[in-house]
Amino acid sequence: MIVDLRSDTLTKPTPEMMEAMMNASVGDDVFGEDPTVNELEKKCAELFDMEDAIYCPSGTMTNQIGLNVLSQPYEEVICYEGAHIYRYEGGGVAGNSGLSFRLLKGNRGRLNVDDIKANINPDDIHFPKTSVIALENTVNKGGGCHYQLDEIRRIRELSMEYGLKMHLDGARLFNALVETGEGPAAYGKCFDTLSLCLSKGLGAPVGSVLIGKAKHIKQARRVRKFFGGGMRQAGYLAAAGLYALDHHVNRLKEDHYRANEIGKALIGLNFVDEVLPVDTNIVIFRLADDLTANDFLQELSGHGVKAVPFGSNEVRFVTHLDFNDEMLERTIEILKSLKIK
Fold first, then answer.
1. Tens of pLDDT, residues 37-63
2. Which positions ≥6 away from 321 have C-beta within 8 Å?
3. FRET pair for 225, CA 20 to 30 Å: which of 30, 137, 267, 303?
């Protein structure tokens, strides 16, 4: 048995999802004529009580487009120093939109009003104009921790006071929502653009949706075009996203339960120095003494378990749709059996 905990992007479509994909009605989406893409976009906009949405190949693209339509070149984005838009999107914000970053530490990556306010640039030609506050929920580098809606509302009030736009990288937003019990529509009221990934915890094979105001999504279609993101009969893929939204949201709690069980099993093992709190489907732990992440992962791989390094001595596990209870038991058994000095 190979257990792959590298990411929740590794899932395969379920048979039922495949059936939905094969039965999809399709057309040319660049002409706006793919009925299944249109249905997905309409569903996402309504779900978050926002005006419009656009379907794209990836979450990186929806993040890049969102930041682009909310800003002008030479302006600045405030975000967490470990945010996906900064660390894992190939420097695209600089090249695609001519933007710079103001990086904040936050509490496990969650920003607060005071930190943000202290880092809004004055109206001075020596500084880039602060234009966007970008949040991430859940926070990948923060171990899958999530915001409370009240804090986001306070940040929104600050953004309106200073005339700033707000973008959400919601790659794992539904992981947060099933834990907090908050509704999607409440998030729609707090952000100008919101990126929602369908190919992580929700289990679709491809695709993300950018949701926002009609004027921003109209511009987003132009930006998607020059980014090369226009697809044709994309309804086959959009059908997977529709199925995921209808059937794979509530089951995210199963992933959270299994992640929490792994986190508990890691505590007290001789090769583990610290386990970050497990809030959703991500487990991050720091290795003890001189053990490196690469050495540990090589040992773990020899037992049939895959994970990724998250620093020189940190490891990340991510639970997902294709990680079941049998795999959970096997993973815990292997971890407890490792003889690492």
1. 999 999 999 999 999 999 999 999 999
2. 8, 11, 14, 201, 203, 248, 251, 255
3. 137
